[in-house]
Design a protein that fits this description.
By secondary structure, the protein is of the alpha/beta class. The protein has a single domain, classed as Rossmann fold. Helix content is 45%, strand content 20%. It is built from twelve helices and eight strands. The chain has an eight-stranded mixed sheet, with helices on both faces. Strand 3, helix 4 and strand 4 form a beta-alpha-beta unit. It starts with a strand and ends with a strand. One of its GO terms (molecular function) is S-adenosylmethionine-dependent methyltransferase activity. Keywords: Methyltransferase, Transferase. It comes from Caballeronia sordidicola (Burkholderia sordidicola). This is Methyltransferase type 11.
Length: 278
């Protein structure tokens, strides 16, 4: 397995690309800047299956030359957005372990931050194996166990002695993200291998400093308001009213990158996994 380390320049280029989509959602532009930079080391051509496709905008940003793409999403409203995007030949509203396509019908499967949310991981990976052509690849991002362990807001509240509130914050955070599989890198690798897939490349994303700030921003954004909704409902209009915010947050992002000392211990990872044969 080849492990790649991202450069600061590539990450800043990633931020410049994704902040066009999410200019005033700092946690999302932060996380996806890392993913984008990692994906630029790889390519996908031919027929592609996008598991957890969403509205298609991020897929199109990463893989603009991929034109023969089928999407899958469980949420009908989201799937309809993907269907209307022009990115996909078709979009199925179905679970990821029940793709209505023939065996060996895709050159690549793309799964961006979706596998960690799936309750039947082994079944999903078996379905990916079935759908891939021999020598085809699964390319995607996942969260690791550090995503839970480094949850900064709940950890800080616990340090202040408010254990009950900290527990409630962590519970809400995990329920929001539905983290069924916050696995270690070794556990992810073993899961892929059980499905008959071979890990070819790994890109660690979001080391400790970046993880802590991302997780703090994300936790605060999705913090439940007593009156209903979440804190992000208040923060977003405030940030979107400031045209300077995306460029200013880029400087914050660059400062966080300068602070990192261990780029291998991370709360996320991008994998390239191959189906043998062909």
């Amino acid at each position: 397995m080849k492990t790649l380390t991202l450069s600061i320049d590539s990450l800043l280029e990633g931020y410049d690309a994704v902040s066009v989509l999410y200019p005033h959602v700092p946690s999302l532009s932060h996380w996806r800047a890392w993913e984008y930079a990692a994906y630029q080391n790889f390519s996908i051509v031919g027929r592609v299956l996008d598991l957890g496709c969403g509205d298609g905008r991020y897929f199109n940003l990463i893989w603009p030359d991929a034109k023969n793409v089928v999407g899958v999403d469980m949420e009908p409203v989201v799937a309809e957005l993907g269907r209307n995007s022009g990115v996909y030949r078709d979009v199925y509203v179905t679970a990821a372990h029940n793709v209505p396509e023939p065996d060996a019908s895709f050159d690549h499967v793309f799964a961006n931050c979706s596998l960690e949310h799936m309750d039947h991981l082994d079944t999903v990976l078996a379905e990916i194996y079935r759908c891939l052509k021999p020598n085809g690849t699964l390319v995607g991002s996942v969260v690791t166990n550090r995503f839970v362990e480094w949850s900064l807001l709940s950890n800080l509240v616990a340090m202040a002695g408010h254990d009950k509130i900290a527990h409630s914050l962590q519970k809400d955070f995990l329920e929001y993200h539905h983290l069924a599989n916050p696995l270690t890198i070794d556990e992810w690798t073993k899961s892929f291998e059980r499905a008959g897939l071979a890990v070819e490349a790994l890109v660690p994303i979001l080391p400790r400093i970046n993880s802590g700030i991302f997780l703090l921003m994300d936790s605060l954004w999705h913090l439940k308001r007593k009156s209903g909704g979440e804190l992000g409902d208040i923060v977003y209009p405030f940030l979107s009213a400031n045209a300077n915010f995306p460029a200013a947050f880029r400087k914050v992002f660059e400062g966080l990158l300068d602070m990192e000392t261990n780029w291998q211990d991370t709360c996320g990872a991008v994998f390239v996994i191959r189906k043998p044969g062909g």
